[in-house]
UniProtKB/TrEMBL annotation:
The protein's name: RND efflux transporter, outer membrane protein
Signal peptide feature range: 1-21
SUPFAM superfamilies recorded: Outer membrane efflux proteins (OEP)
Any one GO molecular function term: efflux transmembrane transporter activity
């Protein structure tokens, strides 16, 4: 082969190596609304550091909650699993990139042969093998592209698992503190019920009321004691659930009781639809589409010929020491071009499979976006309705407390029966507990909204940028 022919072959090889078969990726279109139906549930506040840092739980201004979430981030076994999956995805990405490089191997052999009428001979050899398959049609590039997208999806999966863990800790903590507050309300009510029971006994001893009033007062007190035990059981279960989220044994975890709920935060004035793309599950779905798109290109390269270049050099001698003195030298170098002519439809089936999987991922991505919009709408609607409902419940609590004061004074004066007093006391207790339940629901809805917009997870994180950005030569 003369120099001109070799140059033409090399030029053609380089041009072919610049080709990349398969469709280039474009993010599927989705319809994001300009505003939400329950936008009024979205409140505004000045910018806070936690908005940019993604530490959304700091808006609740509760040091214990902050401590629990940080502990869960450090010790959760669920998060450890997600991080292990990320390392596996990174290894797969590096494995695919390894196909860009040639492969060099070495071997040393020793053989001894002979027969009845043949002298015994020995042969020692050492050999180096070099092989390389240029990426003519972009098969390797498409595979690396697919694995890079899968790696970015795995990084987003870590963020999703972390967000789910944080939300679970926050919700469990809110439920636990609500139970503490319920206990405090019941204990306050128990004091009032004790006073009423003592007054009823005194009035019975004075012949003012009947024995049935005393029994009714004691029954009311006993019912309240039973509810206190129920609250203790529920609190123990919530505490054990928190221990599991934090990655510690329940026996090694304890949270002192407190009658203070986390502060109800006011949320940032950022349009939620803009933040939908930051949700980890949306990023995972979108990167799944990118990976499936790249695999279509991988499947299409199977229709094209493959070129491989190989070379080897070897030394031989009938003694091992001769390999280092004056051995026999042999070598070989040359290209190999291969093309599959018939495969029983396997390549077509592989391509159709890749295209079908791409369509599935596109549908999954669009459905994930729709689910995200639904989650935001649900959270906004809940916040809006609860804000209005809480104002009405505050008025009801005030009326119930005033009614109890009036009925209590009338009962002391002997103007009404204990049944009316018991009814008024229970009405006040129910109104207070209902108001507490609304506050708990408001806190839970705020947590859900933080999750619905992705918890502030930043898509511009340097690690994600490094993963998503193509490496030179890819």
């Amino acid at each position: 082969m003369n120099t001109k022919t070799l140059s033409l072959c090399l030029t053609g090889l380089l041009l072919a190596a610049g080709c990349t078969v398969g469709p280039d990726y474009h993010t599927p279109e989705t319809a994001l609304p300009a505003q939400f139906q329950y936008q009024d549930g979205w409140q505004t506040m000045p910018a806070q550091p936690w908005m940019a840092q993604g530490t959304w739980w700091e808006a609740f201004n509760d040091p214990t909650l902050t401590y629990l979430i940080r502990e869960a981030d450090q010790a959760s076994q669920t998060l450890a699993q997600a991080e292990a999956r990320f390392r596996a995805a990174e290894a797969q990405w590096r494995l695919s990139r390894g196909d860009y490089s040639p492969e060099l191997g070495a071997s040393v052999n020793a053989t001894r042969s002979g027969g009845n009428n043949t002298a015994t001979t020995e042969l020692f050899s050492g050999r180096l093998d070099l092989s390389w398959a240029p990426d003519l049609w972009g098969r390797v590039r498409r595979q690396v592209e697919a694995d890079r997208a899968a790696l970015a999806a795995s990084a987003a999966d870590i963020a999703g698992v972390r967000l789910t863990l944080q939300i679970a800790v926050a919700q469990g903590y809110i439920r636990l503190r609500a139970l503490d507050r319920q206990r405090d309300i019941l204990e306050q009510s128990m004091v009032a019920f004790d006073r009423s029971a003592e007054l009823t006994r005194n009035q019975y001893n004075a012949g003012i009321v009947s024995r049935s009033d005393v029994i009714q007062a004691e029954t009311q007190r006993q019912s309240l004691r039973t509810q206190l035990y129920d609250l203790d059981q529920q609190r123990a279960l919530e505490e054990n659930a928190l221990a599991a989220l934090l990655g510690v044994a329940p026996s090694a975890f304890g949270l002192p009781a407190s009658d203070e709920l986390p502060a109800l935060p006011v949320l940032p004035a950022t349009l939620p639809s803009v933040l939908i793309a930051r949700r980890p599950d949306v990023v995972v779905a979108e990167r799944g589409v990118a990976a499936a798109n790249a695999r279509i290109g991988v499947a299409q390269t199977a229709w094209l010929p493959t070129l491989s270049l190989s070379a080897f050099g070897a030394v031989q001698d009938d003694t091992f020491s001769g390999l280092f003195d004056a051995p026999q030298r042999v070598w070989s170098v040359g290209p190999s071009l291969a093309l599959t002519l018939f495969d029983g439809g396997r390549r077509r089936a592989t391509r159709d499979l890749a295209e079908a999987q791409y369509d599935e991922q596109v549908a999954n991505y669009r459905q994930t976006v729709l689910d995200s919009l639904r989650d935001v709408e649900n959270a906004l609607a809940t916040i809006q309705v609860l804000n209005e409902k809480a104002a009405q419940q505050d008025a009801l609590v005030a009326l119930a407390e005033e009614n109890e004061r009036v009925i209590n004074n009338r009962y002391r004066a002997g103007m009404v029966s204990f049944l009316e007093l018991a009814t008024a006391q229970n009405l006040t207790l129910d109104a207070r507990r209902t108001r507490l339940g609304m506050t708990s629901e408001q806190l839970q809805a705020t947590v859900e909204l933080a999750g619905a917009i992705g918890g502030g997870w930043d898509l511009d994180d340097p690690v994600i940028e490094r993963i998503a950005r193509p490496v030179a030569g890819e």
